[in-house]
């Protein structure tokens, strides 16, 4: 079989674009990026709900090699992130490699041809020598299976499918979910609708968001003297690293830091909510960091408004005109917003069916053994395949550190492949086992296993009870390892 392309990347979000930039830097021009949506940007194209903004400061939440001096705020709103994605695609000439509205259903390794065959919905298969999946961690929306939900007569919107044409003024709305998305959305909805009932199953830790517009003078300084923005990035990244390493990953050694973060969140709640009963309901009973903490100055305050109601007794059923709660009370609503997050462990990992050597199905294998991927990117028995959204790959708090670590890994791997004049690579079982053993041992120091996380219902944990998303090392060490992993971790042919 002759490949149609040298490299195919599935996903045109920041991860896929980062990989594409890396391949282009290495002179690979026969590159196709396929995307199921009708435009690029991944998360920042799909999500358009009111209040959408990044919650990692923008100096850090961007490619280090492509700083944007003109972020309007410390935490850029969603549409600016989308514009940034467009800018990157244009500047690095990625658009001509992209094919939108193309749904890859699966990929199968063809041993004889040493190629990947991608099945594409309604189109002929695509054949590629190298396959990179960049399908994201939070890309498969979770719609809850609540009795009666299909019979609801009003409008239902998942936060990933926001309909901008709907005017919510005067509506009686309900939000199910109190994750990071809801924390951004609820204060905005509270401004518009007449009645808002929020169905909270698990409260979330919320710390103050130190946000504000970036003055034009600072933007000019960043543009004229890029080193100043680099320093700002360094300072912010260092702070995030401290929270992540100290508060979450090294819970055993730095429990006090974790406790301090929880104290900051509790104080924040006390300052915004006077009613002790409401405060009690909004206070998590699990340790800070078990679940992704959030940042907001307006979330708690929204619940103090007379037309905003917090319902914590669960959902009994949904009727055509409202929601009946666990305590028997019914909220009559015309708009139901599902801020119910994403399905990581059942339908993501991998987001498409991937069949490797000897018919090994990646999703089945991960579920039947353990979720694992060497350096969070490669899997044995899956030659010429890199999977960017993998177990133990997410490094640090900003996704861009993970993306750039992967770019470094790709540079080293494909550099070696070329040096040897080889065409096929495959990570060894030994290297994979050693990596899995090392990261899982390190996680024993984390809040996930030492803290009190049982009631957190955190998507960090998979169906086996393993916290298999975050790479339990500093981002510096992840980057160092991407530059120095043993090249013998792979076999080449
Ligand atoms: P999420 O954190 O998974 O939250 C989903 C919420 O829906 C949870 O409160 C969950 O309750 C609730 N829920 C799900 N099914 C339910 C059911 N059947 N009944 C009642 N409640 C139900 O999802 P998310 O808020 O969309 O955030 C996902 C991630 O996206 C975040 O952690 C963050 O990484 C990212 N994010 C980032 C930004 C940013 O600015 N960078 C902004 C938004 C989101 P339980 O907790 O009880 O399961």
Known CATH architecture of the largest domain: 3-Layer(bba) Sandwich
Radius of gyration from CA coordinates:
23 Å
How would you sum up the global shape? globular
Query: Span between N and C termini?
Result: 17 Å
Question: Mean of residue pLDDT?
Answer: 97
Structural category: alpha/beta
CATH topology of the largest domain: FAD/NAD(P)-binding domain
Q: State the total count of DSSP E strands.
A: 20
| Oligomer status | single chain
Total discrete domains: 2
Give a written overview of the molecule.
By secondary structure, this protein is an alpha/beta fold. The protein has 2 domains: 5-40 and 94-140 and 343-492, FAD/NAD(P)-binding domain (3-Layer(bba) Sandwich); 149-210 and 236-338, FAD/NAD(P)-binding domain (3-Layer(bba) Sandwich), CATH 3.50.50. Helix content is 33%, strand content 17%. The chain contains 14 helices and 20 strands. It has helices at 14-25, 43-46, 78-91, 180-192, 216-224, 226-249, 255-272, 276-282, 299-302, 362-368, 399-420, 429-443, 447-450, 475-484; strands spanning 5-10, 31-34, 98-99, 104-110, 115-120, 123-133, 155-158, 172-176, 195-199, 206-207, 294-295, 308-311, 315-319, 322-325, 330-332, 335-338, 353-355, 385-387, 425-427, 490-492. Strands 1, 2, 3, 4, 5, 6, 17 and 18 form an 8-stranded mixed beta sheet that branches. The protein has a 5-stranded parallel beta sheet with strand order 7-16-8-9-12, covered by helices on one side. β13 (315-319) and β14 (322-325) form a beta hairpin. α5 packs across α6 and α6 crosses α7. The longest helix has 24 residues, at 226-249. It is globular and about 70 Å long. Bound molecules: NADP nicotinamide-adenine-dinucleotide phosphate. NADP nicotinamide-adenine-dinucleotide phosphate is lined by residues 53-56, 138, 144, 146, 176-182, 184, 199, 201-202, 292, 315, 339-342, 457, 459.
